[in-house]
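Here is the promised in-class demo. Please do not try to memorize the tokens; focus on the logic of going from shape to residues.
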């Protein structure tokens, strides 16, 4: 009897923990990206960031609209698309939490945003571009894959449009040191569970031409990255500093379909807690459920 009470208590505590994580999250910054007033641009040559009504591009409303903002307004990024000179190029928007280029110094917080990585169909030559994001930024330089080992800052990473890399379709760095990488070829099941665009030349589905809900959590130096609620990374990295979104053409080539090669970002939200349950909470819940199931079988 005492054992059953203990298991029931563990189950109740697990459920309470999961619900508390969500209930206590308070939004401390949100931006529907109707303007760039809250952002400091940092860009390399031949990059752009413009506020657009993306419905005019045939893109549906992003799934996580910030209240009282434009339904289909967001920032459109392009890279290496304005001239005939082929060169890797990145652009970042560094966010300010409360006026100026404010520092996010909380030890525990969550950043989320909607990201659309557009590419022509069929995939054009030179079509590998990528969304870039980061937390813990302390410099104002544009960073991406092309300068990752020399100018890397904070915990940052990228997600490639169409699984165009051999092994680097999505990567996370801590400053200038790579922490982890995943690819459609090596992590096919994970990519297929997160994304829905079929690429004929790749075994895995890709993030191209669909909304990807990105979530980055920081918990005392532990950073987790989710795409469409699927966890891709759990690493250690800097978290005290500014939030960044951005875009990059990582190679010295120009897309053969530049008109359809761009990224759209919308609905950036920062909250002071983590609504994605921590692994320990899942573990406790699992142990409780297994114990209750075992007791039920024994009584039967």
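The designed amino acids, position by position:
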């Amino acid at each position: 009897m005492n054992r059953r009470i203990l298991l029931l208590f563990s189950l109740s505590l697990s459920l309470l923990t999961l619900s508390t994580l969500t209930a206590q999250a308070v939004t401390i910054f949100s931006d529907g990206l109707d303007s760039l007033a809250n952002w400091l641009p940092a860009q390399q040559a031949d990059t752009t960031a413009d506020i657009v009504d993306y419905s005019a591009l045939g893109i549906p409303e992003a799934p996580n609209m910030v209240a009282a903002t434009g339904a289909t307004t967001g920032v459109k990024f392009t890279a290496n698309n304005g001239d005939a000179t082929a060169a890797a190029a990145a652009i970042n928007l560094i966010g300010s939490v409360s006026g100026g280029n404010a520092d996010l110094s909380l030890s525990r917080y969550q950043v989320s945003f909607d990201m659309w990585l557009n590419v022509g169909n069929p995939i054009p030559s030179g079509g590998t571009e990528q969304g870039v994001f980061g937390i813990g930024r302390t410099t104002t330089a544009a960073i991406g894959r092309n300068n990752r080992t020399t100018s890397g800052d904070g915990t940052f990473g990228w997600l490639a449009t169409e699984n165009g890399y051999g092994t680097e379709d999505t990567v996370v760095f801590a400053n200038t040191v790579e922490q982890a990488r995943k690819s459609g070829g090596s992590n096919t099941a994970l990519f297929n569970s997160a994304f829905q665009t079929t690429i004929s030349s790749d075994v895995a589905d890709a993030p191209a031409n669909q909304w990807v809900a990105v979530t980055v959590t920081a918990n005392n130096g532990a950073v987790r990255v989710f795409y469409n609620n699927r966890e891709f990374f759990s690493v250690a990295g800097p978290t005290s500093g500014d939030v960044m979104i951005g875009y990059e053409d990582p190679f010295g080539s120009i897309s053969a379909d530049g008109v359809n090669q761009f990224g759209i970002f919308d609905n950036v939200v920062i909250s002071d807690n983590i609504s994605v349950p921590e692994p320990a909470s899942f573990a406790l819940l699992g142990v409780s459920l297994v114990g209750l199931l075992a007791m039920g079988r024994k009584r039967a």
